[in-house]
Amino acid sequence: MDLRDYLLLLLRRWPLFAAVLVAAAGALGLGSLAIDPTYQATSSVYVHAQLVEPTVADREAGDKIVQGRLKSYAEAATSESVLRPVIDRLDLDGDYATLSRTVEAQVASDSRIIAITVRSTDPEQAAAIANGIAKQLPLSAAAMDGETSAVTATIQFSPVQRALVPADPVAPNRKLIGAVALLVGLFLAIAVVVLVETFDTRLRRGDQVAGSGVRLLGGIPRVRGAAAKELIGNRTPVEVAELYRTIGLEVLFSAGSLPLALVVTGVRPGSGATTVAADLATSWSEAGNRVLYVDLDVPGSRLAPLVGVPDTAGLLDVMAGRVDLDMALFYWDEGGFSVLPLGSGQLNAAEMLGGKQMRQLLELLSELFDVVVFDTPPMLHSPVTGMLLRHAPNAVVVAQAGRTRLAEFEQTAAAVRRTGARVLGAVLTRTPRGIDAPHGADRSRGSSRPEREADPAWMSGED
Q1: Whole-angstrom Cα distance, residue 280 to residue 265?
Q2: For residue 400, what are the β-bridge partners?
Q3: pLDDT > 90 in the chain, percent
Q4: 224 close to 426: Cβ distance less than 8 angstroms
Q5: Mean pLDDT of 377-384
């Protein structure tokens, strides 16, 4: 994958990316809020030799003594001899070891100034301790040097700067933590998205369909707020209807010629094969083709109940010889095509589809209609579809994006091909780019669909 592929991946899975980014960055950011702020105060003293009417040699000797002892005095600032009196004087909680970890004394190069820095969660306490150490250090240094008094000692400590109460904390650095949290969140979000994409075997994209050797005919987005019966025939929202017109043209182009007997099958129940078959039938009827929809999806959401077509007589009755074909056909005005319901009786796939009855019926239907669409059960779930494909060797596979596993899709396409039929292409339903169903009276395709009157001659088979 190149940079463009990664960017497209992040855009495609932006909800997951955003959720991980916000969660990771937010957790680190909130964690920093749980850290108590630390304040820092610094006092400083100037170390020099106290000489009476010194000569140049005396000054040089005093300077050497000071330079030789500066490091020792700085180390003494964190010693128990200095900090213990400060603890007692300020009545601090904790012991010498605890306090020593918060104190730092440094001597700048080529300088006689000792800077005493104290850190504390209490800004006033930090300043008080720093000033207390600066006051106690001359006393402890005089004792270290064997002097009887700090006032008369040879080495003197003159205050340079008193520690002031700090207004702002020095830690935690919330800006830095925020930047680090954002970077860590970005890294984790990208890593999670890549891992999910790697192990997610669900069918989501057209390139996955193409990678399976099947042509992608198109994708149908989700229509939020619409019932199943509001997505078929001229009730379909205009923008979705346009997609079906395009897919319908692709199917006819792949088929090559008319008349066409087409099997529409889903990868699994609920893939939307019935809706796809009905809307393809509508698109072809709008183009002036004579279209028949045959309802064979026994376990699925059959069309007949959705559109109010009576299911008292149908395909099973025709094949059993109980009724003539013209008595079983119904014209659905809103879709502009004829419907042949399943009918009554037991569906015996071997008896109905295994013999020459179905072949003869298909020959008759091909004379009456330009396109015969069979809405069948999922290929992997029923023998009906496989046996029908031996007589109607053209199939469109319908898969629901984000739900269908890629392996299921590939198995379905392979099963279709094993019957000797062609997979003309695949349609993905409920693709991520959802749209809202229109509200109010104007829910149909409107004037874009030419009205067409039923023709009793071709419905009944009369010339």
Answers
A1: 13
A2: 429
A3: 43
A4: no
A5: 88
